[in-house]
Design brief:
Elements: H1 2-20, H2 42-49, H3 80-83, E1 98-100, E2 102-106, H4 111-120, E3 126-129, H5 131-134, H6 138-146, E4 150-153, H7 166-184, E5 190-191, H8 200-208, E6 212-213, H9 233-248, E7 256-257, H10 265-280, E8 284-286, H11 288-291, H12 357-378
Parallel strand pairs: 1-7, 1-8, 2-3, 3-4, 5-6
Helix pairs in contact: 1-6, 1-12, 4-10, 6-7, 7-8, 9-10
InterPro entries: Glyco_hydro/deAcase_b/a-brl, NODB_dom, Polysacc_deacetylase_ArnD
GO molecular function, one term: metal ion binding
GO cellular component, one term: membrane
């Protein structure tokens, strides 16, 4: 019990340290919100000097938002949205029977409602942040880190990256990186291209910046929440339910990444109806960091300590101790993890489970103490 408490406290203190390692954000010091940043600024010029873009694939810039697919396809482009070529992007959660929960386009005024829901249900996610929104809602970003979520990049202005020059891609990524660093002290490592718009030229630039692209696991795991209100909420739920049922009927040797958004009240409302569908189907839920078992889910060079990847919310198998139900209650029989494997709580490994009522009690005690510490440190 003591060991679990100390481990939880250690991770929590590292997280709080990250949040406190911030610098004030002055919006006037950043590029125009929702516009592609100019590449002739002193900041971008300095960033360009830090990397060598020589050898980038010579591919034409596309047009449109999202861009139209070239016809015929361009040889060796490996254009994910058009020809399904993912290159070495991450497209599926590495953990079996696991829903890699991700939200794009935030933070927004609706994000705190989503965070309340995730906290109540003890679920963690990855948030792919738009830099323009980070500078408007830095407190929400800090809260995401404090509550154990994983942060990643979704560019500065949400423009399709295949339509931008190499230098503009650098500006999009680095300004977002700078904003998140200012808010949290953490240097982002994972990213998702807007519209899933990525080809080999974009990949080349992203790798030079140290980023790992994360797509989603095909159209069946696009929740289509972004189509609302043109598509009704009922249709979104019905369509995604079919995808979950098909996944449950499959071998489930790998997990999946969904496409969801915390951009407005509508997408947040439907998320609160979709997540329980996964829990009741005994699908584990995890962030990208936990899915990939990444003990260092941020790049080195941040001003804050490296938080451990937060855990997976284990799916209920029977009535496992520590497994999270929709209401956030904790049953009390022996634990079962993905595919029936026994799960033991390991904070450092980034996946959490439980194998005893005493451990659950320790977790409860530590949560209460951690809450008091949080109040003191953030005051």
């Amino acid at each position: 019990m003591v060991k679990i408490f100390v481990s939880s406290l250690s991770v929590f203190l590292l997280t709080i340290a990250a949040v406190r390692a911030q610098t004030p954000i002055v919006i006037a010091d950043y590029p125009t919100i929702n516009e592609v940043p100019p590449i002739n600024s002193p900041e971008v010029q300095a960033w360009l000097k830090e990397i060598d873009l020589t050898g980038a694939p010579d591919l034409p810039l596309h047009k449109g938002a999202p861009p139209e697919c070239p016809n015929p396809p361009i040889p060796d482009e490996c254009y994910w949205t058009c020809d399904g070529c993912a290159g070495d992007d991450i497209t599926a959660c590495a953990a079996p029977n696991t829903w890699g929960l991700t939200f794009d386009d935030g933070p927004s005024t609706a994000t705190p409602t989503l965070l309340n829901f995730l906290k109540t249900n003890k679920v963690t996610a990855s948030f792919f942040l738009i830099g323009s929104n980070v500078i408007q809602y830095p407190e929400t970003v800090k809260r995401e880190v404090t509550e154990g979520h994983h942060l990643a990049s979704h560019t500065w202005s949400h423009h399709a990256l295949t339509t931008l020059s190499n230098e503009q891609i650098v500006a999009e990524m680095k300004w977002t990186e700078k904003a998140v660093m200012a808010a949290t002290g953490l240097r982002l490592k994972y990213m998702r291209p807007p519209y899933g718009d990525i080809n080999n030229r974009v990949r080349f630039v992203l790798k030079k910046l140290g980023y790992i692209p994360v797509d989603w696991t095909g159209d069946e795991f696009d929740t289509n929440d972004w189509r609302m209100p043109t598509m009704s909420e009922d249709t979104v739920i019905e369509t995604f339910t079919k995808s979950l049922d098909a996944y449950v009927a499959s071998p489930k040797t790998k997990g999946f990444y969904c496409l969801e958004h915390d951009v407005n009240a509508g997408t947040v409302a439907v998320a609160q109806k979709l997540i329980p569908l996964g829990i009741t189907r005994k699908i584990n839920i995890a962030s990208v960091a936990a899915c990939e078992s990444d003990a260092q889910p941020y790049q080195l060079g941040g001003t804050a300590p490296m938080p451990s990847a937060n855990g997976t919310t284990p799916a209920p198998t029977g009535a496992p101790t520590g497994a999270t139900s929709v209401g956030g209650s904790t049953p009390s029989s022996p634990a079962g993890g993905a595919d029936g494997a026994k799960v033991t709580p390991t904070v450092s490994a980034g996946k959490t489970g439980s194998n005893g009522a005493g451990q659950v009690a320790a977790a409860g005690i530590s949560s209460a103490v951690l809450a008091m510490v949080a109040g003191a440190m953030l005051a």
